Amino acid sequence: MLTDHQTLRYSRHLLLQQVGEDGQLKLQQAKVLLIGLGGLGSPAGLYLAAAGIGELHLVDHDQVELSNLQRQILYRESDVGEDKVEAAERQLSDLNDDIELVIHAEKVTANNAPELVQGIDVVLDCTDNFAVRHVINAACQQAGVPLVSGAAIRLEGQLSVFDFRDSQSPCYACLYPPSGQEPKLNCANSGVIGPVLGVIASLQALAAIKLLLGLPVDTAKLQLFDALHGDWQQFAITRSANCPVCAAR
Predict the structure, then answer these.
(1) Which tens digits make up the pLDDT trace of 41-61?
(2) In this structure, is residue 41 part of a structural domain?
(3) Which domain holds residue 219?
(4) Domain THIF-type NAD/FAD binding fold, which positions (predicted)?
């Protein structure tokens, strides 16, 4: 049962037929893993904390830099030089002290990814590293945990949701087979408009909340956002018979 304080705080959720008190209690009992606290992880973290996700795990090994502040809206100038997980923990706790925050100031690797994913209900991949994305995908696929993947560069964004609770779901490696090489273009050398990250991150947070509530979610689709023209494209992702991650499932 919600307390009086929680009833007031989440009153706009409670008015929704799709959420209500039962749905809010589901959110408060949920465990979400947010990997990457940069341009995507910042707004996604704010929305998840505000929504009352009961246990929010934050993973990042970087420190806040001045150049981050153009798009990473979770931080302030006074945070420059501080570990992102610590600055994020402070900001999100100030936003909602009703939730539990678990921080991991470490890189995600093939060794620690399965442990990070263990017991989690939904994972948000907000990283900007191709190799790490594949590590996260493999860990989620193995654990049967839904994965919400986002990316953005320049004036373009993309979103994909893989619900690994479905044994027939394709995975990120079906869409982008591992090549062992990082893409030549990234935010550091090609730039990105901050609000594009906000759009994708908001959709990541929305997809996670819908998954937790049992609401319909577009899965196994690649959604592409062209911010310059305001256009969206959507493509179905099919499971690859030769996928190194999920073909043998």
Answers:
(1) 999 999 999 999 999 999 999
(2) yes
(3) 4-236
(4) 10-245
> Does 245 map to a domain?
no
Instruction: For 144, list phi and psi in degrees, rounded to 5.
Output: 70, 35
Q: What six digits make up the tokens of 249?
A: 């499932």
> Is residue 125, in this structure, part of any structural domain at all?
yes
Which one from 140, 187, 243, 246 is the annotated catalytic residue? 187
On whether residue 229 sits in a domain, the answer given is yes
pTM: 0.96
- Whether the CB-CB separation of 22 and 112 falls below 8 Å is answered with no
Total structural domains within the chain: 1
Contact, 172 vs 133, CB < 8 A?
A: yes
Question: 140 catalytic, yes or no?
Answer: no
Average of per-residue pLDDT across 116-139: 97
**What is the domain-level CATH number for residue 50?**
3.40.50.720
